[in-house]
Structure formats: structure tokens, C-alpha cells
Design brief:
3 strands, three-stranded antiparallel beta sheet, 23% helix, alpha+beta
Length: 87
């Protein structure tokens, strides 16, 4: 129920693909996928996570790609121009 309450407060499911340098081999990039509910467009939850990463973890951040979408939204209605019946 906590996720539903967050979605009603306009939180969106947010996914971030984080590329970072391996601490022992800085020339090699590793991928980490992070997912949580967050507020677009500022993404405060993601920013807290990235601040934690940069201050507490050894792998230096290379890049972050973010995707976000609403899970609860108004219904979409479209009119049809053609109606076909198959026998």
C-alpha cells in the first residue's frame, strides 16, 4: 500500500542506469540499475542515492540515464474510424 500512496502523491516509477568505474580497474565501466518511486523532474530520491554513492562508495560515477513514467494516470479514450467484423 505504501507504493500506491506514493503514486497518488504524483511519485513515478523511476529507473536509472548508472555507469561507474570499477575501483580496482578504473578503465572498466560497470552498470548498476536503480529503481524506486521518485518525483519528476527534480528526482530528489535519486539525488540522495547518488550523493550517498559519491560520498560513501569507491566506484567513481561515469554517467546516469533516467527514465520515469506515471503508473496511475487518467484513462485514454480514442475514437475509431473503422470497425471491422471477422467471421
Amino acid at each position: 500500500m505504501a507504493s500506491l500512496a506514493l503514486q497518488l502523491k504524483d511519485y513515478r516509477l523511476t529507473t536509472a542506469e548508472i555507469l561507474y568505474h570499477l575501483p580496482d580497474h578504473p578503465g572498466i565501466l560497470q552498470t548498476y540499475v536503480w529503481q524506486d518511486y521518485d518525483l519528476a523532474p527534480n528526482f530528489p530520491v535519486l539525488h540522495r542515492f547518488l550523493d550517498f554513492w559519491s560520498h560513501r562508495l569507491d566506484g567513481k560515477l561515469h554517467s546516469v540515464k533516467v527514465a520515469s513514467t506515471r503508473l496511475i494516470q487518467p484513462a485514454l479514450l480514442r475514437s475509431t474510424r473503422c470497425y471491422l467484423t471477422l467471421h
